[in-house]
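Please check this today:
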Amino acid sequence: LHEHVRTGDRVVVIGGGRGVTGTIAAKHTGETGSVVVFEGSAKWTSRTRKTLQLNEVDEITEVHHAIVEKAIAAGDQIAEREDTSDQTTPIVKADELPECDVLEMDCEGAELDILRNMRLRPRIILVETHGVFGAPTEDVKDVLTEKGYDIDRVEIAEERFRELHTEQDVKVITAVRAN
């Protein structure tokens, strides 16, 4: 995000977590840009909002308690946080995501469904893959390539967890839209 978000960009974050990603994006877009965050867990949605508020970027950031593209067939392995399986959590279809310049995804195995079904074509897509939850890095790269993106970088998600993330195929892909 530090490298790719520009002043005035529209950023969509799928998987708000602790709010760090939304905060970084908002600080880079500035008041002329926008950040929309989707988080499926009510508890983590609250944490996201609190982090944005503490960093004084809550005024330029929308946070939605919603799951994006939960097209999960029986037996699929998508990690669910403790309160994302609640039947009342809104679901946003991937083809209904708002237009953006940068899309950042950390959605615990839902990456492939979202990428396959989205219509938007952001300039940059940053994806944390989760092979351990059915979204292997190679499959995500293939879908991005099919959608017209060049793979710029593939890295271990968190260096401090290198061994675990290598074993579980948790990586971050940076993809740039081919012109």
Summary: The beta strands are 10-14, 34-39, 61-65, 67-68, 91-92, 102-105, 124-128, 149-156, 171-177. The radius of gyration is 15 Å. Residues 71-83 have pLDDT under 50 and may be disordered.
